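[job 0412] stage=fold_complex status=start
inputs:
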Amino acid sequence: MRRAEPLLALAAAAAMVVAALAAPWLKFVLTIALAKGMAALGIMLLLRAGQVSFGHALYVSFGAYTVAFLAPTLRDSLLLLPVAAAMATALGLVVGLFVSRYRQIFFGMLNLALSMVFFSLLEKLYHITHGTDGIRVALPTMLGQALERTSFEWAIFGVALALALLFGWFARAYLDAPMGQALAGIKTRETRLEFMGVPARHVLLSAYVLSALMAGCGGAIIAMTTRHVTPLLAYWTASGELVFIAILGGAGGVIGPFLGAVTYELVRVYAAAILAEAWQAILGTVLLLVILFAPGGLWGMLAALFRRRRAA
Amino acid sequence: MAEFPSLTRRAALLGAAASGSLLMAGSGAEAQPQRPSELKIGITTFLSGPASVFGVPGRQAADMLIEEINREGGIGGVPLRAFYVDEAPGTDHLVGEYRRLVQSEGVHVMFASISSGSCLACTPLSDELRKTTVLWDCGTQRIFEEARHPFAFRTQGYGTPEILAPLLYLLQHRPDFRTLAVINQDYAWGRDSWELWKTAMDALKPGVRVVAELFPRFNSTDFSTEITRMLALRPDVILSTSWGGELVTLIRQASERRLFERSLFVLPVAEASLPQLGRTMPAGQIIGARGDHWINHPEPRDPQALRRFVEGYRQRTNEWPIYPCHHMAQAMWALRAAYKRAIEAKGGGWPNDQELAQAFRGLEFPTPTATITIREDGQGLEDQIVGLSSHGDRFPYAVPEKMILYPAANVSTPVGQKSTDWLRTLKPEMVQQAGRPLGAG
Amino acid sequence: MVAWFEQNGLLLGLALLDGLAYAALVFLVAVGLNLVFGVLRILNVAHGSLYAIGAYTAASLGIALAAGGLGPWASLVALVVAAAVVGAVLGPLIEGLILRRIYGQEEVLQLLVTFALFMILEDVQKLVWGVQPVHHDAGLRWLGTVDVPFGGDVIPFTAYQLYVLPGVALLTLAGLAWFLRRTLTGRVIVAVTTDREAATAMGIDARRVFLLTFTFGAALAALGGALSSPTAALVPGIGAQTIVLSFAVVAIAGLGQIEGAALSALMIGLGRSIAVYFAPEFEVVMPYLIMVAVLLVRPQGLFGTTETRRV
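[job 0412] stage=fold_complex status=done
writing structure:
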C-alpha cells in the first residue's frame, strides 16, 4: 500500500481534474477540500506525536487574513501565497516555541486558547478587520496576468493540487526521516528519546512549524477561492473540523487527510442539500460511525481492502 | 419538505463527465431561455446557531408563500421550488453552495442572506455569475454604498433608515434627554448601527453626553455586569440594537433589576423579540420593526392581505410572524412583480437573467402595508414605523402605540452618497418634518 | 494607586458581586467536566450540549409546572429536578452506548467521539425546542431583588444572582469535597484519577466508576445549564460557547482538581467583570489570557501535579 501511494495520489489528482471539468461548482468545492486537506495533513503530523491541536484554525485564518490584507498591494496570487505561508510559519515558530513545552490536554488547550484570542481580535478590532462582516478579496492576478474569473479558478485549483502533491510528498519523506520517526517516540515514551540524545521539544517544534506552514497555505488558498474572509475561520469549531478531517481520512498515510477533506466537503454538501437543517447531525453521525467501526479512517479501510485483495 | 439531489448533481459526483446538462448551467445570461418547468429559487438563511431565530421563521414564511403562489398557478404559469442553504457553517460553505445552486441546480434567482457578512460575500458573486440576487434581509449599508451591483436588489430597508427613524422618534418624544448609554452586540451590526446613530445624533442634537459604550461579546447570555454599570450611571436613554436571544435576555435582566425605572430604552430591532417577551416587555419604550409591518398597523394599504398573511402564518407554525417573515414575503412579492414586468416587456416570453434584473430596477411592488420601490442603485425604499411599547387585549405581547410613520425617502441616504456623510448634513428641523403620526395615536 | 482605589473602590465592589455570580455558573459546568476528565481521561466536548439540554429541560419543566398551577417556588425546584433527570438519563446512555466502546482507543478518537456527539445533540436540541428563545424566570422574580448601597444611590441585584447562584456553587463544592474524601465511592474515584493502572490492579471495578463519574459529571453540566436558565434566554448555540470556557477552567485548574476548578472559575468570573468595568476590550480574551499566564508559571495547572516520567 505504501509503495502504491504516489500512484494513488496521481490517480486521485487526475480524478479530481475530471470531476472539476464535469461540474464547475465541484472545482470550487475540491479546491476548498484540498486547502483543508493541507491543514489536516499538518494536524496528522502532530497526531503522530500523539498531540492534538484544537487550534490550528489559527494558522488557516492567519494565512487567509494575510491574503485579505495584502491583496490590494501585492495583487499577484503567486506572491500572496508564499507571503501568507511565511507569515503563518513565523507565527507557528513563535507559538511553537511556547506550546511545544506542553503535552496532551495542555498542548491542545493552549492551541485552542490562542486561536480563540485571534478569533476575538478579528471580531473586536472592527475598524481594521470589519469584524464579522469580513473582508472581500479582490480577484488577484496570476503570474502578473489578470485572468478572468473562470481561468483564475482553474489556476488556483491547479496551484492547490500541485501544493497538495508537494506537501504530501514532503510529509512522506519527513515521516521516513529520523526527525519524523522520532515523532512516534514522543507519543509512546518521550523519556527514551531524551536518553537517546534526541531533544523531544525540537522534534515536536519542527512538526509544529511544518503544520503551521501547511495550514497557512491552506488558509491562503481558501481566501483566494472564496474571496471573502470572516472571523469564523478562526472559531474553535473550525479547528475541530480539521481534526475531524484528519481522523476521518485516517492518520496512517499522507493521502488520508485529503481523502478525509474531500469526503467531508462532499458529505456536507449532500447533507445540506438533502436536509439543510440537520447537516450537523449527519456529519456527526458519519464521524461517529467511522470512529466506532473504522478507527483507522477511510485510508485504513482502503488499506485493509487492498491487503485482503493481495492476500486473496 | 426535503429536496432530493437532482440527477445532475449525483451524476457530477460520480464523475460522469459526459452529461452535457452539467456544463450548461450559469451560462444562460444572454441565451434565449424557454419557459422552465419550475422556477428555482436558492435561499440562504440561518437554519442553525443563534441567528436561526430569524432564519427559521424566514424559511417557514417562504414555504408558506411558495405553496400559496403555486396554488394560484405559480409565477407566469411556472410553479416555484426553493433550495435552502444554511448560513451558519461559514463563508466557504455558503459561497460554495451559492455556486452549486447557480451552476449545478440552475436556480433562476437567489435570495441571499440574513447576516451582513453573508450578503457581502454573495453580492459580488451575483456580479460574476450574472445571477439576479435578492437581498432579502441583511441590513448593511456597505452593499450599495461601496460598489455597484447590477444583479443585486434589496427588497427592504437597511441600517440607515432603521436607525435614523427611532432616533427621530426619540428626539420628538423626549427632546430634553442629556445622557445616553449604548449596549450593542460586539459585531458588525452592533458597531455599524452605533456609528450611524452617533453620527446622526451629533448632527440633530449636539452635546448629548455618551456615558457608556458597552459592546458585550456577541452571543452573550449574561448582561448583569453591564446592567450594574448602567444602574450606577443612570443615563437618560439606553440604546440597544441587539436582537434575538440576547435582546430577550437583556430586557429580562434589565426589568428584573428595575433598570427601566431609571432609563428610557430605544430598541430599533425589538419587534422580532416581542412575542417571546410577552407581558414582560415594559411599556413606554421606543420600539422599531426594521420596517412598517407592525401587526397592529392602524392603516395598512390592504388590511385583508395583512390579516391573511398573519393568520396563515399562525395556523401553519403556531407562532406570530416577525419581521424576517415579512422580509421574506417582500422578496417573494417583488420576485412575482418583477417576473410579471419582465414577461410583459417581452411580450409574453420568458425573461433571461439580464431581462429579469432590468425588471427589478425601478420596480414598484405592493406589500400588505404599503408599496415598496426599488431605487436605481438596487436599494428598496421601505417605510419605517416607530412607536412606544404598550399592552392591550388584542395581542398577548407588546405592540406599539403613538406610532409615527417615516416615509423611506425621508430617512434613506440619497443614491450615490455614503450614509455617514449624509447623516452629518442633517438639520434639527428634520425631527418635526420627517414623519407623520399614524392612527388616533 | 491609593487614589485610584478611592475613586473606583465602589465600582470594584460592584464588579466583584457580578463576577461572583458568573463564576458560580462557570464553576458548576467546569467542575463536572474536570471530574469526568480526571477519571475517564476524556475531554468531553458534548459537555456543552448537556449544559444546554439541562437549561432547556429546566425551562420547559418550569413552564409546565407554572401552567399546572404550581407556585413560583416549583420553578426553583424544577431546576434541580431537571438537572438530575438529564444526568440520570443522558449520562448512562452516552457512557454505556458510546464512550464504553472507545476506552482503549487513542485520546484523539475519544475526543472526536464527543465532538461528533456534540454535533448531533446540537441538531437534536433544535428539533426538540425549536429556535425561538426559550426562557422562564418565575422563580427568580419570586425571590425578588436586594438593594445594594452604592454611594448615595442603591443598585438592585436579584436575590437569585446574589445568594442562590454562589450558594449552590459553594454547596456543590463542599458536597463534592466531602463525597470525594469521606465516602468509599468518592475515594475510589480519587484513586482512579490519581493512578488508573494501580487502582484497577487493586481490584477496583473501573467500569462502574466510569459510569458513575460520567453520570455525575453530566448532571453537574445540566445543573449549570438549569441554574443559568432563569437569567438567560436559551437559543441554539449556547452549548458551543460554554464548552470553550470550561476547557479554559480545566486547563487552569489542573486535571481532576475540584478546588482548582473553583479557584480558576473565580479568577475567570472576576477577571471578566473587572474587565467590563475597566478595560472592556479585554473582556472576551480574559479567560484565555488568564489561562496562558497560569500555564506559563505552572505548566500542570494551578493544582495539577507533575506526572512521573515513565521510561
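[job 0412] summary: The domain at 160-289+383-437 of chain B is CATH 3.40.50.2300 (Rossmann fold).
[job 0412] exit 0
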